[in-house]
Every structure is written in structure tokens, then in C-alpha cells.
Amino acid sequence: MIDMIKAIWFQESRILSRNFFAEVLGPISLGIIFFFVFSLPFRASLSKIEWDMFALQLIFHTSIFTFIFTTFIRVSSFYWRTQYGDSSFHLLILGGKGTNFNIFLAETLIALFFGSLYASITFFILVQFVSSISSHIHFPSVILFWVLIGFQFSAFGKIVGSVIKDQSGKWSVMFLGIMPVLLLSGIFMQNVPSVPINVEFILPFNLIYGITKGYILGQIEYSVLLYSMVETLFIVWVASSIIALKARK
Amino acid sequence: MVATIALRNIGKQYSAEWVLSNITMGVEKGSFQAIIGPPGSGKSTLLNIISTLIQPETGTAYVHGLHLQVRYNQVRSLIGYLGQTEVLDYRMTLIENLQYAGLIYGLDDNFAKSRISELGVRFQIIEQLKKYPDKVSHGTRRIVEFIRTILHNPSVILLDNPTQHMDSFNSEKVWSYLNELRHDKTLIFISKNLERIQSIADRILILNEGQIATEGTLEQMKQTFHLANVTELQLDKIEDNDINELKGLSGIHNIDYNDDTFYLHLKSDENPSKVLSLFDASRVKKFIRRDIKLEDIYAHLIEESIIDD
Predict the structure, then answer these.
(1) A29 domain residue, yes or no
(2) What's B138's domain CATH number?
């Protein structure tokens, strides 16, 4: 497992250093663009206090979007490349003494690292546009939901990268599938928590709901957390066992 | 005999088609086993099964006594596998590709570095290793892949056409290196170079349509098929009548031919000159008797030519 993390880190860090602009600036700029697209219509009509409240949540959700985008695209690219691109799946499987789960976990942890890094950078850039940040953050809640979001979208990334042979498929899934669902889940929208209680248990709304509540209100929703954990475990199990890297015919 | 690799009734099915069936064989520790056969005969599939990359539908397989389907993790650390398809990350240099493989295999950093350096010197590509894959020849990339296969010093080496794309100079380096590993490593390889196989392989497996056509040493095959030598008769052109004439001649085991040459397997006590009496001397371009080669046995069994690489 540690060997696999070291190997993938070695590969990713070298590629990052050579494609710095595409690798780093891409996801961060995308997040910032989305922030302005969704905030501009409200900027002029809101008072300063209202704007701060609105922007505070939008900045946070923009960071989550950057995190989801980075994690999903990195993992799906990794699996597409190993399965259909350079066919290095057999190197990973043979060398990694490799259970598919080890490979998945190693790639997910690295994707989570990069996703969190880019999300933090996005957050700190955008937070300059508001005069204060939330003082009630429930860090354990935010961190737990953050990790669950990371694992779920990493698992989706693996499924998409392993199943869709067309290299551009991941972009279609991201912008035509995941993006609309995220919008419906309340990302880039205000007042997320004020929805009927039964909707909390529908993916990925529960994740957005849980993390937003931890960030804005400083509360942890144990029932949502438990349900999200069960869902995440199931999705990760599907992605790492059923959708397994395998030799082609 | 200590069998490093034992296969029993191995069968593999893709869709409704059996690409391998009833493959039973053993490979002795420290021996070199070649696999040959026409395209689609199941050679690469068999190698993939031994490498644990794919699982057979029927049968059992063991490497060093370890059941492939059960203890595949231990098996994987014992084998080095070089497939036919190139597997290099073009975004990293060749040396980085090797370092990446070393990390995947969990090699100690210093060991990996010294091993890469040692093998780079041995195959005279130290300078090339600093380049990206698209800046070097096919042959150099194949050598790098070969180095990666043996980087972790595996005891069982599985090679699928290891010298494809290589020029004769590099190809020779690889085969001579492998020859030095004899008795120390167990090697199973697929190659189209029958002359090379004849000179390096201890045993040969010929596959045809997913089944074993024959298996053994070259001498055993000669005995099995009663083939001691072959008489080559080259004419200006082969007519239908020529074939019938030869078929009518007693003392001939088998007749193979191409556009202008007959390959005749005569009984050992037969005098080959009686073949000559059938043809006008002006039509005969070449008439020789030589020892049986692997190529003759292959042609005898498969009736299909393959091109040397």
C-alpha cells in the first residue's frame, strides 16, 4: 500500500512539475470562474451583510466544487490511462502485488491531497472578497464530510475511467452529469439547509447538506453522517471490487 | 525434475469460443521453455494465465507450488512479465519509468538505482535513459521494458516476443543476457525466431488452435514424428503433376512445399537420389539433404509459415 502511494506520487509529482499550468491552474481557475458566474447576478442587489453571508457559503461551495472536480478528473484519468491509454494496469497489478483496493486507495489518497490543496487555494483567493469568515465551523463534521465527498467522487471517477473507453467521456460525465446534480444539491445556491428532511438522504445532497451545516452553523448531523458513510462504503466497494482493473482480451 | 510451473487441464474461454483447452504441462526449474504457434493459437493467453493477469475457466496452475488463483500475490512477486503491448508513460523519461516500476515493486531505492545503472550499462543505453520514450527508437523502448521486467530480479521470467522491434545487435544482447541466466531463472518465452528458439530453448511447446500440438525437446519431436532429416528439392516451378508423382513414390513420410520447393521427409533407409530420377535435370535448381530444424517440425504440424523477426 505504502509502495503504491510512493509510486503514484512519484509519477504524479513529475507530471505536475512538467504541466504545472494545466494541472494546477485549470481546476483553480475553473472554481474562480464559477464563483463569479454565480455571484455576479446577486452582487449589486445585496447589502454588504447579505453579500458576506451569501458569498461565504458560495466560496465554500466553490471550494467543494474544485475539490470534487480535481478528485473526479484525476481518478478517472488515472483509470482510463491505465486501462485504455498506456495499458499500465498489468504493471500496477503485478508489481503492486496488487489488490485493486490498494491501487484505488493509493490513487484516492493522492487525489484527495491534490483536491484539498487546490480547494484550499481557491478558498483563500476567494475569501479576499468577503470581510469575514464563518466563526462557527465544526471542524470534525466538515473534515468527515469532506473525506466522504472525496471517496465518493473518487469512486465515481474510477467507475467512469474504467468503463468509458472514450477519453473525453470523463468531461461529459463531469459537466453533463455531475455538475447538474451538484447544482440541484444546492452547491452554488443559498440556504441549502432549508429543505424537506427526507431529501437529506439523497446523494449527493446529504453530503452538501452535512458539510454546509458544519461550516455555516457549526453543527454535526449524525444521522446524515451515518447514512452518508454507509452510502460511501457501498459505492467504494462497488468501485474497488466489481469494477476491477483487468486484462483485456 | 523439479517443476517450477505446473499446469493441469487449463482452459480459457472468450465469449463462446475456447481459446485454450486441456493444456497440461510442466516447466522445470531453471529451464528455458519456448512457446510457438500460429496467430490466435493461444500463446499470449497462456502466458497471461501464468502471469496471473487472467484466470482460466478450467484447470489448475501452480508456480513454485503456489496456486495461481489463490496465492496470486506471492506468485506476482516471483515473476517478471513482459507483454507484447508497449507499456511506458510518455510523460516521464525512460529512467523515471524504471524508477516508477521499482517503486511499484517496492524495491529499496538504492537497490533500484544500482540495478537500473547496472542494466543500463549492460545494454548500453545509459545515455538514452535520460530521454523521453518518443525521442528514442522502438528497439530502445523495448530494451527498457525488458530491463523493467527483470528489475526486481524475478525467479520466473515470462516474455512475449521480447526482441520485437529490436535490431539484430540489440536482439543479440538480450538473448545473450538471458543465456547467462540459464539454470538460475526459469524462462517461458514466445518468439517467432525459430532459429533462436532452437538454439536457446530446452523445451518447446507448439500450440495450434488452443491445444498442444506437441511439447518436448527438439530431439523428442524428431523421434515422435519420425523425422531425422529433410530433403530440399527446389524446381523452376512446382506443377500439380509433380506433387502426384512424389506422392506415388514409396518411402516418403511427408511432403511439404511452397511455390518452388519441396521439403520431403524420407524414411531413414531411403536413398534420396531416387527422388531426382522423377524430374528432368534442367528443372532442378537445388537438391540437398540436411538435418531437421524446428522450422520443419513446425511446418509439418501447422502447415503455415511464420516470419523470423
Answers:
(1) yes
(2) 3.40.50.300
Under the banding of pLDDT at 50, 70 and 90, the label for residue A108 is very high
In whole angstroms, what separates CA A5 from the centre of its chain? 19
In this prediction the ipTM stands at: 0.79
Distance CA A214, CA A202 (A): 18
Q: Looking at the complex, does the CB of residue A96 fall below 8 Å from at least one CB of chain B?
A: yes
B94 pLDDT tier (thresholds 50, 70, 90)? very high
Q: In sequence order, what are the beta bridge partners of B23?
A: B10
| Whether residue B265 sits in one domain with residue B119 | no
d(CA B146, CA B132): 17
Same-domain pairing of B84 and B178? yes
Q: What is the full DSSP assignment across A226-245?
A: HHHHHHHHHHHHIIIIIS--
**Does B70 lie at the interface with A, CB-CB under 8 angstroms?**
no
Interface check for A155 against chain B (CB to CB < 8 A): the answer is no
What are B233-245's pLDDT values in tens digits? Answer: 888 888 878 888 8
Are residues B103 and A88, on separate chains, in Cβ contact within 8 Å?
no
Q: How many domains does chain A have?
A: 1
Which of A67, A229, A238, A94 has the alpha carbon at shortest distance from A162?
A: A238
Strand partners, B266: B252
Chain A closest CA to B77's CA: distance in Å? 7
Residue A30's domain comprises 2-242
Range of the domain at B57: 3-215
* Mean pLDDT estimate for chain A: 81
Closest CA to B86 of A7, A245, A166, A91: A91
Chain B residues with CB-CB distance to A247 below 8 A: 48, 53-54
Give which of B80, B216, B75 is closest to B159, Cα–Cα.
Answer: B80
In sequence order, what DSSP letters do the residues of B196-215 get, joined into one string?
A: HHHHH-SEEEEEETTEEEEE
Structure-block grid coordinates of residue B264: 520431403
Describe the strand order of the beta sheet including B58-63 as a list of residue ranges: B17-28, B3-14, B58-63, B66-67
The answer to whether residue B305 scores a pLDDT higher than 60 is: no
**pLDDT at residue B268, as a whole number:** 65
Question: A88 and B91 in contact by Cβ < 8 A?
Answer: no
